[in-house]
Amino acid sequence: MARKNEVISMLLAGGQGSRLGILTHKIAKPAVPFGGKYRIIDFPLSNCVNSGIYTVGVLTQYQPLELNDYVGNGEPWDLDRSDGGVHILSPYQQIEGTDWYKGTANAIYQNIHFIDKYDPDYVVVLSGDHIYKMDYADMLAYHKKQEAACTIAMREVEWKEASRFGLMLVNEDGTISEFEEKPANPRSNKASMGIYIFTWSKLREYLIADENDPESSNDFGHNVIPAMHEAGEKMVAYQFDGYWRDVGTIESLWEANMDILSPASGINLNDPNWKIYARSPSAAPQYIADSAEVSNSMVTEGCSVEGKVDFSVLFPNAEVEEGANVKYSIVMPGAVVKKGATVQYAIVAEGAVIEEGAKVGAGPDVTDPDEWGVAVIGEKVVVGKDATVPANVMVNENVEEGTNYESK
Amino acid sequence: MRANNVLGIIHSQAFDSNIQELTSVRTMASVPFGCRYRFIDFPLSNMVNAGISEVGIITKENYQSLMDHIGSGKPWDLARKREGLYILPPYNTSIASAAGQRNRIEAIYSNMDFLRHSRHEYVVITDSNSVYNFDFNDLFAYHTEQEADITIAYKHGKVPKLDNMQILTLDENKRVTEVAVDNFEEGEVDYSFNIFVLRKSLLEYLIKNAIAHNGTSFAKDVIQPNTANLKIVGYEIPGFAAMVDSLKTYYNVSMDLLAPENRKALLNPKNPIATKIADNVPSLYGENSKTGNSLIADGCTIEGTVENSLLFRGVVVEKGAVVKNSILMQGTIISANAKVDSIITDKNVTISPNRNLSGDPSYPIYFTKNIVV
After folding, report:
1. Topology of the domain covering B3-266
2. A300–B285 C-beta distance less than 8 A
3. Which pLDDT tens digit goes with each residue over A193-204?
4. Closest listed residue to residue B132, CA positions, set B327, B301, B3, B266
5. What residues of chain B lie within 8 A of the CB of A300, using their CB?
6. pTM across the whole model
7. CB contact, 8 Å: B287 with chain A?
């Protein structure tokens, strides 16, 4: 029997992240590389540890191999503990049959016994696809002060974007009077961030009821939260004004990477009081050659730069050869941009090779604005010598030497 | 013999007095090197990469920073239930008191219990003032093949200016026929890298014997007199290997890493040199930064100009600052418009704005830890 924990976290990391296309063909979304040496999951995991939460269940389902490998025993986050620590929770066979996680609520429901083991008073439910630094202890203090059954982290978004979010109408005392899911005509600009704190005894009750409801899609946002609200439980909103990005799409992933290059964006990764921890490969220091020009960029261990890099993020062991030009791009671990190649407004995934003289991506200025988008080169894809890949495509197969890639 | 039958012994303190600048606050083993490493990382990683699973690090004084760096041994996969890493603090015996642990013989003698308890049949002994990356298994295979009693890894070149350096005379079969100690010949010779392979039982015997005869020098009282009655052979270290005997060679060896062939040999990703994980952010290169021919660790912020230099973790080069031919250790700040050339800064040195400081590559200026210039 584990010792009682006042609060534990459950991190929903099972989603496919289909909007990230080929970047999540082989890995779950939370395992997608971010910010030079991190993966998306490092943010919620580091937040937990920095908030003093040392018991974290990571719910995985889709392509869990790399994610499980990455989280491992939790040592990089100080989550290798004899009491608590990080636990990977995958769906499993049970006496009455086997179920995949049918929805976010069902994923937690299937792990009620895991949570019960720690006998917590509160459970923090987190998503694995957000980039932000947040002290959950502050949010928990607010939850306790309000004596709420459920506290939902909320931020004010631009009115014109509000209809893309799950919105909340909030009273002056912080209680939530109404929910609106992606309404056409928003009455509020207070959006849910997908970060919840529940009083466990309450949540437990509603999870069981939800499971017994054959009509339910077993989802927090669609079923459990509305059910609690309708039953008159105290639901409060906790306003968070810091940097927060959902990186569920190619554009938002690219933008959030660009954000870390800009001090004005509000996300500072170089904060000794709120470190983001990661499982780092052991690599040599980065080498910047005489021929290199590096500016407005982040470069990390194991990289070798001989060419030009501007407004870009280079991951461990990425290489940019002489005469190559990389701008407004993300070059993931071990990817190579060879001599004279140009990569702009692009995401080059792990181990991809851009051969000599190839051109990948295009700027919004030279493309029809409606057609423009970030070009994505998939894992281990080779873009042949002098080949061209236009903007706004996802390339998941090798591109032959000298050809123009056309999306099918 | 196989690596899993070899115990590693590392002297962490030898030659501290030769680079007093860098060792005034730490022991030789924890002297920072190559942007993100400490000297101890090299013998330790070479041992672990070969499959050695038990390593003892002999300490004498000033070893707090070494303990901080080594921790449980996790980065080298030596945090183990069985065996793993042992820090051997100074230990008083009737013969070798902590203060009197004056030499390698006494250092090993005071850790005889550790040797005795190890289940391994062989030992490999190293110092921690040199950098190299080669397969210790080749060294062990050579030892077996030669049916040697002692194998000494050596290098051909000018002898470092250190005490007790052994110049080896090798016959055509690489057997050591003569050892000259502290003979600083000008020319190039074969000199011992102070890496020794031998049976543990032989080491125990030799050390006890040396103590019984008031021996004080491993080179003069253990190796030198035994060339006739023991089969001592030399093994030439392949690839890049360098020993540091002064602040100047520290500077030169560091700068050698800027050459791609040296870097690839020493920091070969196939045999990685492991070090303590620091969780720094990637380095940020600002708008008007210019960086050329330099090695940079993570956590740096570069807004000025950096040329032919090595930057350790968390170094800041502010706008308009110019850094040339320098080694800047962790947390150094070169303030706006300051210009530095051929300097070595220890940890957390701050060079104030507009200062102009230059040494010469043949005589770099050293700035001690935590000072503000």
Report:
1. Spore Coat Polysaccharide Biosynthesis Protein SpsA; Chain A (3.90.550)
2. no
3. 999 999 999 999
4. B266
5. 282-283, 298
6. 0.91
7. yes
